[in-house]
């Protein structure tokens, strides 16, 4: 249980820091560059994550040096967070976002592979929910912390707070004990592992269709988030309220942690991720009519429900289909699908907004999510297979 608590502590701090930066970037550049250019911040970050997350997962599984890899990646990410407060030119920020994505993409696959090591199918849902719960707590704190800093200070101070939170997470990693931390001969194993991620298992239970559905879903939601704070500011919401309102997303996820983890291990993975996908299709339509605190609050609550039901089904599904010893590679698909969708989503959103308007963009995002739902209908349950 000590390992779980340490990882929960670290995850809360990491995602508190991670959650602050996108909000800061949208506020800084709202009047300085186009909406399309602001959306590209998300694309560049997830381009790095898409490229490097599978690599981190494969190296983690092959070397078994998970603690060292996790500590190194977090130390470098902390330094990059600080540089955001120094180099504030648009193109400098783009470069920093890419580098930040490179090193932060290590966190999810490595942490989940440590957490789920030697875990049975019946317990995978509960343990993965612990990670998702801790991540939700981190994003919740990031919203409140961002609102407080913006109310008392300014935007640059948000990057300083991000540095402190990510660096502080290393205190937990330092006392973490991981199995297999001895030196091994990895040359042959690395040669075998550096192939297409998921080979030999991703099609089990039609898991490849779930990855496609996830990618489409992340195209809509991550594209939406790349300009969401800009949209809220232009609808009359003050900047110091952005973090507080968005925190309702994470607060909802926290409330759902135990019931969703329980349901995943009882009724199965598929019902949960199907619910998450259909709710994701509703969110863009709701945004068309949002114009006050109440409506935006409701939207963030629906986002929270859609995400946690989705992830509570998907994470153990991937654990179920992965062969023993390749859990990190399987978990990297969470970042892989999110990364690919997050690369395409902001570009699509930025182009549509530039050529038409926000209302048209939201309608198209809803249609894409409906396609994702239909695709996931053809997957097969893993819990009892």
Can you describe this structure?
This protein has 16 helices and no strands. It has helices spanning 2-29, 35-63, 66-83, 90-104, 107-115, 121-152, 156-168, 170-174, 187-193, 207-225, 228-234, 242-266, 270-288, 293-321, 327-355, 358-376. The chain has one domain (2-177, 189-376): Growth Hormone, Chain: A (Up-down Bundle). The longest helix has 32 residues, at 121-152. By secondary structure, the chain is an all-alpha fold.
Structure in a nutshell:
This protein has helices spanning 2-29, 35-63, 66-83, 90-104, 107-115, 121-152, 156-168, 170-174, 187-193, 207-225, 228-234, 242-266, 270-288, 293-321, 327-355, 358-376. With 385 residues, the protein is mainly α. The protein starts with a helix and ends in a 9-residue tail after the last helix.
Distance between the termini: 28 Å
CATH architecture: Up-down Bundle
Poorly predicted regions are 181-186
Q: Multimeric state of these chains?
A: single chain
Ordered list of secondary-structure elements with their pairings:
Blueprint: H1 2-29, H2 35-63, H3 66-83, H4 90-104, H5 107-115, H6 121-152, H7 156-168, H8 170-174, H9 187-193, H10 207-225, H11 228-234, H12 242-266, H13 270-288, H14 293-321, H15 327-355, H16 358-376
Which short descriptors sum up this protein?
385 residues, mainly alpha, Growth Hormone, Chain: A, 79% helix, globular
């Amino acid at each position: 249980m000590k390992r779980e608590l340490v990882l929960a502590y670290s995850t809360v701090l990491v995602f508190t820091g991670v959650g602050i930066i996108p909000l800061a970037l949208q506020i800084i550049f709202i009047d300085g560059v186009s909406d399309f250019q602001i959306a590209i911040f998300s694309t560049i970050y997830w381009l790095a994550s898409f490229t490097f997350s599978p690599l981190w997962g494969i190296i983690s599984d092959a070397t078994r040096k998970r603690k060292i890899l996790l500590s190194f990646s977090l130390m470098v990410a902390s330094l990059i967070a600080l540089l955001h407060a120094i180099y504030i030119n648009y193109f400098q920020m783009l470069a920093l976002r890419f580098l930040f994505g490179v090193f932060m993409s290590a966190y999810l696959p490595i942490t989940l592979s440590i957490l789920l090591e030697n875990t049975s199918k019946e317990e995978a849902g509960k343990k993965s929910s612990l990670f998702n719960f801790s991540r939700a707590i981190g994003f919740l704190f990031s919203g409140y912390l961002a609102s407080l800093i913006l109310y008392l200070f300014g935007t640059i101070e948000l990057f300083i707070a991000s540095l402190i939170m990510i660096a502080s997470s290393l205190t937990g990693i330092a006392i973490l004990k991981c199995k297999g931390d001895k030196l091994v001969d990895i040359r042959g194993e690395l040669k075998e592992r550096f192939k297409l991620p998921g080979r030999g298992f991703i099609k089990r239970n039609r898991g490849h269709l779930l990855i496609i559905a996830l990618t489409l879903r992340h195209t809509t939601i991550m594209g939406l988030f790349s300009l969401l704070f800009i949209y809220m500011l232009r609808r009359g919401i003050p900047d110091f309220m952005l973090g507080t309102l968005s925190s309702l997303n994470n607060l909802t996820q926290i409330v759902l942690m135990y019931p969703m983890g329980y349901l995943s291990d009882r009724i199965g993975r598929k019902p949960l991720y199907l619910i998450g996908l259909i709710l994701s299709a509703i969110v863009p339509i709701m945004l068309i009519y949002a114009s006050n605190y109440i409506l935006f609050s409701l939207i963030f609550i629906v986002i929270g429900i859609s995400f946690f039901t989705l992830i509570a089904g998907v994470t153990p599904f991937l654990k179920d289909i992965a062969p023993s010893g390749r859990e990190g590679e399987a978990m990297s698909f969470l970042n892989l699908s999110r990364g690919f969708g997050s690369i395409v989503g902001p570009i699509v959103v930025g182009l549509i907004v530039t050529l038409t308007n926000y209302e048209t963009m939201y309608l198209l995002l809803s249609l894409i999510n409906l396609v994702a739902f239909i695709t996931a209908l053809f997957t097969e349950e893993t819990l009892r297979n």
